[in-house]
């Protein structure tokens, strides 16, 4: 292919040539004004001289044509799996490839786009424009013939029409059908956290989208919605369609609470994926309200107070009964303190407001009537938490065991009190219990010695029910945990924990032990002794099972797409067994061992990919209009438009056809240059015209 052109290599700067030409024209203009003869020939002479100085050449180029590039973007996002869209997309892509391949001087590229995993890349939806830009990164804009996107129109990275950066026509082939209908449920508003024991409000909305006007007139006005909490209890309600509905839900525990919301299928459904929504709310405790009742002043009383007050999340109410046991002077009980002990307010009116009640070295002295102790026992059975740190009085007639409270205590004192040095030890069961497993200073092997200091007093007792997680002198029970009704009880059969606080013989993990003990009593999920849970960490799901008895049975994992698999658990310390599996998709992962069920949420729980799955031209139309492209339907049974090459600046679409620009780009492979104004020729022509001008002037 050969092309011709004219090139200039001026002998003087262009500025000089232009100024000289303008001066010459001014002089010649004065001559014309004076009607001087020969002016025309002088103008010709000036033009010849200026052309000679400009030094023009005829350039002959040897050109190699460059193929234009047509790009086909195939949408392979999850929404393309709905109905027959995948088949329609494949057929449209194949048809376009065949038609474009028949056009001359055109390179056809095809890419798949929109299949990103929200669990890894975030919830960005279907991104086709970014993929198209990357596919054409090595192609100059003047070689792009056009872009064809085969999609359902639900594209989430559509640029503004005036800033799309596209210089070639964009054609869209829609893989679905007009007037598609679908039902979805939308979580309009949901808090990210809630206070444990309080209700929070979810705002939900059911929408019936699309369909023809006649069909919409027949749609129902309400829909049945099911709400499931933590994969367990469910509630059903009828919701009006098209209106926001506020739904109160209770946060029962700390950590994540997962609410699954599902609406029944509508009159038209493209997919049931958007009939479900998931809300994860983190439960946080407002403040831990603790009632500490010390039976008498003693060295460990300040330890309890300091440990509880050191935690800013603890709201502590502390009373100490100051009357020593040997003082028998007949002073009325109501006069033994500077302020009246609010017995009725604490143990009847506001008892249920406390998260934990602690009796520290308490003995029966008539301060608390049996009626109020019965209230505490009832409080425990209804879900409350009780901790007794026993002193020497536990082995006497003044023990709490001989009150109505004894019905919820796990041990019965024998009356013996040991006052010898011993190191508290974690039992085999305790090594698997979350309260005492892996305590700092505990031995690494069962026969080892702990590194913490000794205690010097222990009350002997018989365990009737509950779990002994620590022992003391001669293997006697030291810390016993029990579940009573819906509540929990713990007994420490010694009042010497204060020695660890004082650092005696190196001290011990009293703060950690008390923290775990308090939160176990309040049913914190992280401290459940028999528990199954899943935690998402990046691209991995960590499954942890904690049991008091060794259990290496596999668990069943159900992935978001409904596929199930068996996962082998690997034993670890502290009664745990762990397995790590890769996350393959966003959504809810259900884990079950046959007894317990856990739910883990990964990535985008309500992906925008399925927020609206109806095929639509609306999102892409501004860009196709701005680039001179078109939108056509390519669903199953729809014929493809014809494909043509069009010249730049011409319409790129019409009735039944789409156009791809013929840019005519090329690469110059050879160059031949021939001067058009040699110096000798310019001199002869200039002198000749000047002579003619002189002769004309002389007549």
From TrEMBL:
Source species, domain of life: Bacteria
Transmembrane stretches, start-end: 12-33, 40-59, 676-694
Region: Disordered, residue numbers: 551-575
Bias-annotated ranges (Polar residues): 565-575
Cited PANTHER family: BLL2462 PROTEIN (PTHR37947)
Gene3D superfamilies hit by this protein: 3.40.50.880
Organism in which the protein naturally occurs: Aliidongia dinghuensis
InterPro entries linked to this entry: Class_I_gatase-like
Annotated keywords: Membrane, Transmembrane, Transmembrane helix
Bias (Basic and acidic residues) ranges: 551-564
Protein name: Membrane protein
